[in-house]
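Example 3.2
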Amino acid sequence: MVDVAHMDDDAAMAFCDALQANTTLDTLVLSRVDNLMGFRGRTLPTSLRHFEWNACFHDPNVDDATINHLAMAVGPTKLHHFGCSVFGKLAQCMAAAPMLAQLTCLEVHALPAAGVEALIAGLSTVPALTTLGLEHCAIAKDDAAVQLMAALATSCTRLSRLQLKEHAMYHDGVAAVLTGALRLPQLTWLDVSPRFNAMALPNLLYILMELVAAGRHARELHLKTAMRQITINGDRSPLGDDKEHKRAVLRALAMIHDPTSSPMW
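Structure, written as tokens:
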């Protein structure tokens, strides 16, 4: 259910009652649905496995009462996948603890800078997590990246997939993520692609050692850099990385020794 601009109190209450009474619902996606107020004290079906609640945008107007109601709603469920932009606040509610303790996949989108600290603290409540997606989140400083990876290494030791896509970090922050990835023993997939124009291809030269080490640790590593746009006679050419920069990065990568390879005599 998406973009419901108006729902009166009677309709909202009836909808929440119907959800609570349902015994077979497996997937529920709600985004920009007016007047639900965190399901008004009702609980969601225990059959629910995939739930997204305003997952793709951040609503600054979510109040504490709504967060508390949302925690009561999800607490009895056995969700595998949870998408939510207010995870940090929700993790502070004891009512949500039973669900969070067994959650395996968490997605957080559009997290503002003010919510990063609560997000990191909340990771201690999701020890069973195997997949974490943080997209368009305002994680910009390298110390926040260090704290994030330390929290994952301490609390989420089963993590196998980590997506930090469209973040605002520069090469120092990316280096902190790549270094921290080595402390996640089960990690097989990592995407640390920054937002457009946050990092250019030459910036990879600053983090080659970390990039190679993380690439040897994980099976898949994704890091997209900003593409250059050249203006010729007032017209912009198609976006494209400078071939010279590509060659420089590839030459530097080729010079890094692989400790697992046999020496050439």
